[in-house]
Amino acid sequence: MSFAATMIYKTSLLLLAFMATTSFASIQKQTYVVHMDKTKVTALDTSLGSSKTWYESIMDSITKFSTQEEEQQETSSPQLLYVYQTAISGFAAKLSIDQLESLKKIDGFLSAMPDEMLTLHTTRSPQFLGLKSGRGLWNAPNLASDVIIGVIDTGIWPEHVSFRDSGMSQVPSRWKGVCEGGTKFTPSNCNRKLIGARALFKGYEAVYGRINETVEYRSARDSEGHGTHTASTAAGNLIPEASFLGLAKGSAGGMRYTARIAAYKACWTLGCSNSDILAAIDQAVFDGVDVLSLSLGGVSRPYHSDNMAIASFGAIQNGVFVSCSAGNSGPSSSSVSNIAPWIMTVAASYLDRSFPTIVKLGNGESFKGASLYFGKPVKQLPLVYGETAGGQGADYCTDGSLSLELVKGKIVVCERGINSRVGKGEQVKMAGGAGMLLINTDNEGEELFADPHILPATSLGVSAAIAIKNYVSTTKNPMASILFEGTIYGGDPAPLMAAFSSRGPSSVGPDVIKPDVTAPGVNILAAWPPNVSPTRLSGDKRSVEFNIISGTSMSCPHVSGLAALLKSVHKDWSPAAIKSALMTTAYTLDDNKAPISDASSGGSKLATPFVYGSGHVDPERAANPGLIYDITTADYLNYLCSLNYTSSQIALLSRGDFVCPTNVDLQPGDLNYPSFAVLFNANEQNITVTFKRTVTNVGKPMSTYSVQVNEPIGVSVMIEPRVLNFKKVGQKLSYKVRFVGLGGSTGSTTSSFGSLVWVSGKYTVGSPIAVTWQ
Ligand SMILES: *[C@@H]1O[C@H](CO)[C@@H](O)[C@H](O)[C@H]1NC(C)=O
Ligand SMILES: *[C@@H]1O[C@H](CO)[C@@H](O)[C@H](O)[C@H]1NC(C)=O
Ligand SMILES: *[C@@H]1O[C@H](CO)[C@@H](O)[C@H](O)[C@H]1NC(C)=O
Fold it and tell me: Which positions, given as ranges, span the membrane (predicted)?
């Protein structure tokens, strides 16, 4: 999903959610996700048969209760939408306020959270990541197809060439998933590649009413495009001659193109309901997926009140790797979502591929832009903008703002914001315009999206925008021309961090650096449903097999596919070990050997760990990382103890009898995370914090690692011991890092960054250090 569209979408969703909760809450019932104490549920399971029976009897009892209480009012039984029993313990139900109150008195009740809507946040990418056919990770023995990726998204287009199963072996016998029928979808739509498909909409329909099957498939079939795109990025077949209308020609394919795909459709026209997503996660873990890919999210919350975090914890308890998008709310700081330490949080960066255009003004000035429009150049034509193009809203080219008289046969300047980027192009075309210059504001900086415009049009950065506005306002007959250059490889340094990519530090969990890594997420080519136009505008009648879109939604499935690749090579690795391998081998230099830059500043500013985490993923190195920082479920729970969570908050996540240890001094910084987030009080000087880490040898049996440190400004870093001598594979050794804040900072919150790297021959095991004075 495009960045602008996501933003607009969010606003209207918020409005709807607001209406639903405020005006009708007192009369209407609302859906709640109810968490129950698993130990109590299990005890009752044996006497009642299943937790569903128990929840049904709870529903019965609270109906009776509320009927007595509200004799005059019309009451109906609470509706049980879902029973969750694999990744979380509890259920989703539509309840009145009184029913909720009586539910709270039931033994085993932990919490009830109102359901909410979340939003959805490649020929070139495998080669850019260093994956080559027949070599390294992509050589035959590693490509056994026993890894299953669950994609929770807008569904899938099952007939797409990316999901054909020719040459694939039988579906693994451990697989328990199904292929559900529905609108234009039958069980025969699945095959040995797409091994499962389910549609989850009970939570969505509880808010918006029954899905209209004439406008949207009430099944796993994708009517949006997003889910087909992400699934093919994670595990689509290698397609040799893929392109978007002739652009980006080359082979398209998933990161783990022999993996199986299971599609869980939980996102619909107006968003993704939390209760449906939880049902998808719960079901996928039960079905037997190895990796979960979620290109969606909401606002960050403490883990005990974040349903995605709770369900993801259940997934990793079951050995399932969970990869999520960081969000598209950059470049504002602390905008990152999906921040729980057991989730892999993925930022987005540019590939070494671009679709450049050249815009020349009548005064001779010229600017570089980007576009997926590919055709004849637009020769010098009159340029109109704002009041020379129409009435109110003409500077943004909003619906109906442009005047046919003023625009016909001319090039129109349109500012980013309000309506979608391709929608502005549609407005210009409808008014008879010959072309469009889509200009960034300060907020987008020099970020250039290549969009599939329906007329000759190009994006331009903020510096071009300033020059063009100045030219138009000071010139009597302003003119411009546009030249489309097609696909260029290796033009600008890559990777470059996308301005839209959400950033840390995480305001909810500042003791962990988020996001964790970056992966390609700008102008990504992947599969697309043939009956959804590339712009999704109703006036766009084009049909494409592949489409190019941008977002952390696109970078997340790259990492999901890479996790599947690592899982097939290292069957015994835990989700935390896979995560560690991807993080400690990530790189922070671009292809010019310069530190990775940030597009939000026009590429003039260097990106930091709060933008890319540990750096850009490097799958070939991740397959053989030397050392890993492993984390057990108990370690995560001890971390929650160190955050002073109450026992019922911890029970939500542990779903067992876990009790915080009282004899040890727990601190959040001791979580065995592969990166270091250090928090200092800005008013104190000379403060010391000491973190402990344990590394496991997964490289050569006899190996000696020595440490190299790049100290953050204002901080002294001491490591003990500075050499680790391993004698065998699987051996664990620990070390301590002491951070001493020297001067402290002046004024508001500031950060500084460094790194800690263990080196042994060809192995380099790196961790970023982010220090924040707050
Ligand atoms: C479903 O959508 C179609 C097309 O927009 C509309 O004509 C029809 O009335 C809708 N049906 C319902 C039940 O809302
Ligand atoms: C938890 O409580 C202890 C004791 O009151 C306190 O020292 C510590 O700072 C608290 N930790 C967090 C993360 O709030
Ligand atoms: C900081 O601590 C060191 C050693 O503990 C001491 O020598 C130094 O004077 C202290 N500096 C300040 C500003 O307190």
Answer: none
